Amino acid sequence: MTRAREYWEKNGILIVLVVLFVLSAIFVNGFFSRINLTNVLRQITVVTILALGATFVIILGHINVAYGSAIALVGCITCQVMVVTVSLPLSILIGLALGLLIGGINGFVITYFRIPAFIMTLAVTTIARGAVFLFTGGIPIIGMGKSFAFIGQGSIGFMPDSVLIMVILFIVTWILLNKTVFGRYLYAVGGNENAAIASGIKSKKIVRMAFLLDGLMTAIAAIVMMSRINSGQPAGGSGYEFDAITAVVVGGTSLSGGSGTILGTIIGAMIVGILNNVLNLMNINTYWQQIFKGLIILAAVILDMIAKKSRRV
Q1: How many domains is the chain partitioned into structurally?
Q2: Which own/partner contact pairs does 282-285 have at CB distance under 8 Å and 24+ positions apart?
Q3: 250 with 256: CB under 8 angstroms?
Q4: Strands 155-156, 159-160: parallel, antiparallel or unpaired by DSSP?
Q5: 292 located within any domain
Q6: pTM score
Q7: In a structure prediction context, what are the per-residue pLDDT tens digits for the chain, which is 313 residues long?
Q8: Is 4 contained in some domain?
């Protein structure tokens, strides 16, 4: 039993992905077509990029619920800069800088005032959504041109640009988490902050760096999303926070902090993406889809708590 449990803990999430993929290919019409699989890859890029940043935050035991509104704000401002300046590098730079600013503010307020990340990012959700509607007047931004659309719609050979961006970010974040001092300190702070501080780790600095990285990933996700639809949507990004958090939790990262992997997050994002695609192909009502996603998060958290109790025993 012990060996079986250890094997499941190491490979269970991958087994779930393979089984889900095979069952979908067999029983869901249109799933295994080249066009649909390419669409699935394109569709999971935004959630996956968000989830990569969320992994660092959740390993620390924090949670960010502001992804949706942050995507809308960063994306619309990026689009507007592109329309006004017709400069792709400048618009991207402004978007990335805004994402870093949002992440930096989150990290600073959370660590300096000791405000729970959930409360802080809940406030940011309302502020950002209000700001984007004030900025746009509720009207979508159009006219960015083909160069902007190429980020989300174009391909290099057989590889969609957005998927290539996702793969590069996966490699970078994997290295950060597994091969750097920052990654080791992140696990230490998330596992036991007091012990980490006692060993000389500056926990506040680690938390702020994690939220800066999270903000950067959010900005990249916003640019990819808005370029894919080639318009700045002030109501865009709604619900993405739940998909991103679901991907991270399903991928094995504990909401209580201290454990998680980038590879697990990628697999979790694929599972969420395939489920979304299958539910859409089966014409399942959107409201039922929301209920289903909520149950997945609940089940993943319960399983994580059971696993932790069994390890203590």
Answers
A1: 1
A2: 282/28
A3: no
A4: antiparallel
A5: yes
A6: 0.94
A7: 567 777 777 778 888 899 989 999 999 999 999 889 988 998 899 999 999 999 999 999 999 999 999 999 999 999 999 999 999 999 999 999 999 999 999 999 999 999 999 999 999 999 999 999 999 999 999 999 999 999 999 998 888 999 999 999 999 999 999 999 999 999 999 999 999 999 999 999 999 999 999 999 999 999 999 999 999 999 999 989 999 999 999 998 988 899 999 999 999 999 999 999 999 999 988 888 888 878 887 887 787 777 666 665 5
A8: no
Amino acid letter for position 299:
A
Cβ neighbors of 25 (< 8 A, separation 6 or more) are 31, 32
Segments forming the whole domain that contains residue 84: 31-307
Both tokens of 22, joined, read 């095979």
Q: Does 107 reside within a domain?
A: yes
Distance CA 217, CA 168 (A): 12
In a domain, residue 313? The reply is no
